[in-house]
Amino acid sequence: MYSKWQRAIAEVLGTAALVLVGPGSVVATLKLAGKVAPFTGSDLLGISFAFGLIITALVYALGKVSGCHINPAVTFGLAVTKRFPWREVPLYWGSQFVGAVIGALGIWALFGALGASLGLGQTSFSDTTSYAVAAGAELIGTGLLMFAILGIVDRRSPGDLAGLVIGGVVVAIIMVLGPITGASLNPARAFGPELVAAIAGGPTHWVQYIPVYILPGLGGAAIAAWLYDFLAEPRIVQMPIQAAVTHPDPDAPASTRLETPAAAR
User: Is residue 260 scored above 50 in pLDDT?
Assistant: First the structure.
């Protein structure tokens, strides 16, 4: 079992990497194109794959350490359905928000004033989209992500595919919801660029944050986790991603070697 500090640092690093690469790809796309949003279809596809590929890599790299939640909504959904201890939720949430801020600071450091003027890849929605539609989009998108996570890390599923499935579903969701809300799907991912953009003197959309990017995400994850349990009745375990991507150490003595979890077989 990894210590709580190892797990906390893994969540900080993972969320920082997610924000640096994901929202960072938004700024990079705008810089290369010399324009501002809206994006073309090819722009959106490239950004979607940036998010999906970094999440795939992080699941395999950090899943065995912390479970690779890197998302307060995922942590909340796991805690609500007793897959994750409530006493560790504050540690994970704090680590995820700190990591998101670090990642956004990294974007600012790389792109400077231009990155700040472009919002550091922050999520927002236009006046043509109502709060109800935006909140519904984030609730559904985060719920679909949570549902996919629980499905692939179920011990009856092929666990070796966890990173690919989770990364792939993120690509698919962003392709649909990106033009509506920016497809945050993650309260920490939305918070980091928003805070650092405010510090850097860039545009901010704080009025949208709680009603669209926090509450619907948490609610969507909780609803999806409950619905998955209702439909599939999985064996409830703590830190399911960790179990799905952990394998025995082939160099360890046979007497101490852990059996490969069924989800990873």
Answer: no
Q: Is the pTM of this model over 0.85?
A: yes
Q: Judge whether 116 and 202 are in contact, CB under 8 Å.
A: yes
pLDDT band at residue 83, thresholds of 50, 70 and 90? very high
Rounded to 5 degrees, φ, ψ at 249 are: -80, 115
108 by DSSP, 3-state: which? helix
So where are the chain's domains? 4-246
Range name among 54-68, 131-145, 228-242 with the lowest pLDDT average: 228-242
Distance of alpha carbon 146 from alpha carbon 254, whole angstroms = 36
In words, the CATH class of domain 4-246 is mainly alpha
All residues at 6 or more sequence positions from 73 whose CB lies less than 8 Å from its CB, including other chains: 142, 146, 185, 186, 187, 217, 218, 220, 221
Residue 233 belongs to what H/E stretch?
none
